[in-house]
Amino acid sequence: MRRLPSLSALRAFEAAARHGSFKQAANELAVTATAISHQIRLLEEYTGLCLFERQVRKVVLTDAGLALYPVLRDGFNAFEMTLQHLGKPQTRRRVIISTTNAFMAHWLAPRVKGFQKLYPEIDLELHASDQAVDLGTELADIAIRYGRGPYPGMVAEPLLTDSFAPVCSPLLGTIQPADLNQLPLIDFKWTHDHPLNPTWKNWFAAAGLPWKLSRSQLIFSDEGHAIQAALAGQGIALLSLDLLADDIAAGRLVQPFGPGVAGHTYHLIRSAGHIPGPHVESALAWLRSQLPG
């Protein structure tokens, strides 16, 4: 069985030690200064020690008081934190973000650690698909989609307009435009045909070079697989410089020559019929912040 002095005496001592004043401790605890003095005297009688040196207009802790104060301070702080935690049920929020496979792998996924540091109370669920999801359901709160729009029934804002250029592995050595006749051209099939898609044919036109259907091509159904083929040195690919900025900066890919050709725009999209909650607004603000400037 514990043998401890009264809680009132311990509270009076901790408050007086923190303020350096019986009067201020009394104000905090809504009692008189005489009551504080009485409780501390009871504590001193209990311990057989002098805990305060009484001076004019203030009190100063003795060595015994200095030893006791941090123990009580930390104890009362722990009580307060635990009671606050118990009194506030912890409810986590979840935000579902849907985007294309390539954007997920090469832009969004490498950055989510930064979001978790800023918003540890929000869980991110990341959905990758090249097919648009219905934002009117619970499948996603936010979508990042690639194209030119329009997006009827949606609130859409431009996030990133990319550019495409030839890239390849440095394992292939120094590459010149003339080498395009010998190297496989890595390509992928676009989900939607559009005359302004940054295709190899459009790039050759922008570069002022003749396009020949007889060129050796390696065509993938998925943009991400085309990126992996380029990283593996299987040829030269026409890919987004923005999605591959980290790979180029790290030297895993190089851009041997130009020109670059404009791509489409990644849009932040949400349903016009739903007002986003604070957690969704936090995710939207973070996505915007990831762009330079």
TrEMBL record:
Keywords: DNA-binding, Transcription, Transcription regulation. The keyword Lipoprotein does not apply. Residues 5-62 form the HTH lysR-type domain. One of its GO terms (biological process) is DNA-templated transcription. It comes from the Bacteria. It holds the Pfam family HTH_1. One of its GO terms (molecular function) is DNA-binding transcription factor activity. PANTHER family: GLYCINE CLEAVAGE SYSTEM TRANSCRIPTIONAL ACTIVATOR, HTH-TYPE TRANSCRIPTIONAL REGULATOR. Belongs to the LysR transcriptional regulatory family. This is LysR family glycine cleavage system transcriptional activator. The lineage of its organism: Bacteria, Pseudomonadati, Pseudomonadota, Betaproteobacteria, Burkholderiales.
